[in-house]
Prior knowledge:
By secondary structure, this protein is α/β, with parallel strands linked by helices. It folds into two domains: 2-213, Rossmann fold; 260-421, Rossmann fold (3-Layer(aba) Sandwich), CATH 3.40.50. The protein is 43% helix and 13% strand. The strands form three sheets. The chain has a six-stranded parallel β-sheet, with helices on both faces. Strands 10-9-11-12 form a four-stranded parallel β-sheet, covered by helices on one side. Strands 7-8 form a two-stranded parallel sheet. Helix 1 (10-21) links the parallel strand 1 (2-6) and strand 2.
Amino acid sequence: MKIAIFGLGYVGSTAAGCLGSQGHTIIGIDVSAAKVAALNEGRAPVYETGLDALIAAAFAEGRISAVTRLTDELDDCDVAMVCVGTPSGADGGHNMSNIIQVTQSIAAALRPGRKSPLTLAYRSTMQPGSCEEIIWPIIEGELGADAARTVELVYNPEFMREALAIEDFFTPPKIVIGTLGARPSPNMALLNAGIDAPLFEVGFREAELTKFVDNAWHAAKVAFANEIGRVCQNLGISAATEHEIFKSDTKLNLSAYYTRLGGAFGGSCLPKDVRALQHIAAETDTATHLLDALLRSNDAHKQHQFEHATRDLEPGAKVLLVGLAFKLETDDLRESPAVDMARRLIEAGFACDIYDPRVKPGDLVGQNLFYAYSALPHIDDLMVSKEVAESRDYARIIATNRLVDSLAVDRSRLVDTSTIA
């Protein structure tokens, strides 16, 4: 295919070299005369391990060139890839001026009546809504009714690390293709042919948010590791040894466990041990801002779920809460988010029934007993049987876990707080 690449920074230059090495013909477009000159001399515009050799080989075979201004280069292109920068703006959001300028130049250069639409793929990190609310209106404003016949808009985030960009290009952790209605893109399928990675064909907004989620998680991991490292140093503990122990656990620590979007955390361990680690850090004068925010974030999620679960409910409405323990198949109520949900429902004036066959108030002992009755003094009167739960007419059924699957209830009235779709 013939591919135009807008922006010859690290992402665009790496794409040019890698795609050129696969036999595609590349035309680079950048406002920097120095970057364009480098590509036209068979050199990489930026330093990236191994990139010079890829670009030199493609250049020697006549498959790579560059320009500073767009003229008719798009006429016979199959794909246009936008890799321009989106730096931070004054308000913390992305500065979209480069995206807007490039999109305007592309839209002005496109000619209706193409044999097949140009696949216009954006790789720049952009906030959700950018494709639909910024990019497409520019294209449609220029091309009018011909826009959909002339352009196939795609959002295709990249997952490359500098210094390992070529390796990551050919062996990415995943491939995300965002399109209108999550429709497959034949040209993007051709570009990714032979790459073995999980493929996600999703809507624009899901694709656009991906890089933010990934990079925030990476930042959280670094901050967490450094906070633990500071605690270790101030306690005279080997941070390296602690890290070896931590990373060896690929069942829970370095895995998908605890990353599923859904309920708040609770139970006998997580809240208690977070508080204790905060105490240890305070005693050793260790700043742990991330750790200190964990419980506040968890409380904020509980409030969010309560507001979501009770939205549009009339005052005093009859509500069934399904699942009271902190997880399925246990009777442990200690710091259960479901107990907190029940308390909030009652305090808000809703008539609340609770169904959880594993929880029998008369059998509770110790801290479990204390926590249950301190949060829900009338818990004995709130618990109902399966027969009652299935027979009463509830305005809302709030599920905190998969226990609801065992009930024959009106699912049109169900709000499941254990998952976020």
